[in-house]
Structures are given as C-alpha cells and as structure tokens.
# Entry
Amino acid sequence: MIEQPYVYRRAELTEPDWTRFPGWAQVTREEWESAQWQRAHCVKNIRQLRQVLGAGLSEEFCADLERDQRERATMSMLVPPQMLNTMAPGTAAGDPGFTQAFYADPVRRYMIPVFSDRRPDWPSHPYASRDSLHEAEMWAVEGLTHRYPTKVLAEVLPTCPQYCGHCTRMDLVGNPTPVITKHKFALAREDRLGAMLGYLRATPGVRDVVVSGGDVANLPWPRLEAFVAALLEIENIRDIRLASKALMGLPQFWLSDEVRAGMSRLGATARERGVSIAIHTHVNAAQSVTPLVANAARAMLDTGIRDVRNQGVLLCGVNDSVEALLDLSFTLLDGAGIMPYYFYMCDMIPGSEHWRISLAQAQHLQHQIMGYLPGFATPRIVCDVPYVGKRWVHQVSRYDTELGISYWAKNYRTAVEAGDPLALRREYAYYDPIHTLPAEGQQWWLDRERDRAGNGLAPAGTGLTPAAP
Ligand code: SF4
# Structure
C-alpha cells in the first residue's frame, strides 16, 4: 500500500437527528420534509436560536453573536432548520461540550458568524467594498449583469431562503443590518424581468444566462418557470443555469411535487430545443450533503436537466484544507451525483478578512487536490478579480507576495470599458488578507493606512491599480 497525502474513503450520508435539539424534539418526519414547515421555522434571531438549541448554548456565545450582529454583520440571520441541523451533528444540545462544538463547526462559522470569529486587527481589507465585483456597474438593464462577452447574470430577486455571512452580493441581497443598508431595485419585479428578456432578445451575442439572485428558490414557482420558459424561446440562449443554494439549504423545496413537475416540463422543452439547463448550488462542507440533499439532486437529474453542479466558496476555518475540499468533492460526487465545479476565493467584501485566504494558499490547495478526482470533476479554484471576472488561481500575471497584491490581465471588454483603449493591456489588482503577509508587508499596509488617515483620506479605495510600493 503506497502512502498518500489524502486517503479516499467513501462516506455514508446521514441526516442528523433533529430531535436532539430541544426545540425540535417533537418534530415529525412529515413536518421536517415539508418545505413550508422548513420556511416557517427558519431561525432569524438569537431568541429563536436559543429556543431551538436550548440552554446548551452558552450565554457567552449569544453575547458574541449579538455583538457581531450589532457591529459587523453584513447579512441578517436566516438559517433553515435543514442547515442548522447539520451544525455540530455529533453532539447533543445538552452535552457539556455543545457550545464548543457549535463554535468550531464549519457550517456555523459561515452561517452564524460571531464577533470573536473576525480579525480584530484587520476586520476588513482597505480595498474591501460593497458590490466588490462591480456587478451593478455592469447592469445592461436593472439586475442583469453583462460582464462576459457571451454570458449574463440575471439577478431575478434579492432574497434567499438562507443568508450566508460571507455573501458576495451583500450590497443587494437580504435585509438591512445595523451596519449595512441594502440597495433596492428601482423597477418592480415584472418590469425588471421583462426588461431582462427584452435585452436578451435584442442581444444575439449572449448565449448563456445564469438565473440567480438571491436564490431562485424564493421566486414563486410559476413565476420562475415562466421566466425560464421565456428564456427557452430565445433562439440565441443555449445554456441556462439556475443558481440555488437551497438545493442544499432547503432541499424540501426542490423535492416538492410542484417543482419536480415544473422542472420536468422545462427539462423536456430544453431537450427538444437542444438547450442545456443546469442547477448550480453552493455547498461548502461535506456534512451539508445529507440524504435529503442527495434526493433533491437526483430528483432534479431525473427531470432530464443536464447537470447539478457545485460552486463552493473557499473559506478559512470552513474548508481551507486538502482533506475538507476532497472530502466535500467526493461526497458531492459519490453521494449526491453533484458535480464539483468551482471553489471561489471569498470576495473582498467588508468584514470578510477572517474568511479569506491568500492567493498563494489557494494555489497550493489547487495543486494538492489534483489527481484524486476524475478530471471532469476536479474543482477549479478561482479568483473573481474585480473588473476582470473569474480566473484560475494559477493565471495570475504577477504576484507581490510581500504586499499581497496579485495582478491580473483580461481578454475581453465589459460595457464599462467599451471606450477604454487600454482595457486589455491594463493590470487589475487583487489583495491577500493583510494578516497573512510577512511582517514587512503588514507594516507597509499599517503605514499606508496611517498616512491616509493623517491626510484625512477614507481607509478604503477601489482603484483599478494600487499605489506603487
Ligand atoms: S445563498 Fe448565495 S446569494 Fe444567498 S446569501 Fe448565500 S451566498 Fe448570498
């Protein structure tokens, strides 16, 4: 037997016992498997969290959470029972070690962030910003980001059945928090969706639409089906991807009779027209892949759509190890038939430094996960570079590891660079978390921020090119 850095083990999927939580001790399987029950019992605040978890959750944890919500959180709390049940799955709520297990849990770390999780030195990078990918700047019509030549992103609604602490669309998605107001769409939904379809009918160069939000699972099913059916009638649209973390967070929605029947209708039309429909979900930890999630993925594949793929986010303390990434990828592939597709580096939104990792670490992880999964199912780790788009982490043009600044090039123009003759020759910057830099680099950023503060300048900027060291 040759010793290997990673040892493959086929994992059995398990649905943790929800009756271990005092608040759900009487919940029946029928209730649990109902999307309506799940939506009605989402945890939205600390009081509800305590009601479910009981006295096993310490006062210290609740105070830590309350402080985070008051001072740092960019997303409000919304956790479906399905997701909460996968946190600290091996520990009963009454066990003395429950709070500790809950603190350490990878799903808790990104769904229910607490103040002590965040970096005290650099909670945000100086170049962090709302809408860090500048999606709204690239709206062709409201909510339709045209960033790549042949692809668009349709933000059909600004809500989800679950809110992730690190949401890259924190500018738009969810409810306001004490520190973040949210951008509001100006157009009514019907006008917005109508304008999107009008743009796509008039723009034959677009062949690929990501239908996203938010999460499409929050659009009433008949409205979502009608929108996708309208896309299927547009001759130039050849790929449609439905973005739904709820396939994992609320699989009961995708398992409902109404949705299965509707997806079968869409799948049949798509096949007839030679168009691919896929569902893109967002799973960050292997423990989230339960039998219900696998059933939902398989039910969708049975409708005749092309694929169900995962776009996870690479998060420190959640999945930033070779074991975590490969365990998750194998569990998705073997257990649920979900294709491991991408891991995105966490975007540079405010308050995300404790989740982000350096480009060097991302490159190392990409190197280390190669060769275990089939090539078609080996996820690419990508950096979504502002004004550029997704780039594989090894595509960097140059990289200053002392200051943690990587420089990237692009090979297409977006609407915002239509008149920019230098767009394809420019270098675009991305920044490592400062706490991961060598001492000299950390000092450089400290001095820079002190100088800026001394000159009365705001601490953040979003320039295309950083100041030269
Ligand atoms: S599901 Fe996606 S859009 Fe919704 S909060 Fe999470 S990351 Fe944001």
User: Anything to note?
Assistant: The chain has 16 helices and 13 strands. The pocket of iron/sulfur cluster is lined by residues 160, 162-164, 167, 169, 173, 214-215, 245, 282 (CB under 6 Å). The chain has two domains: 29-116, 136-436.
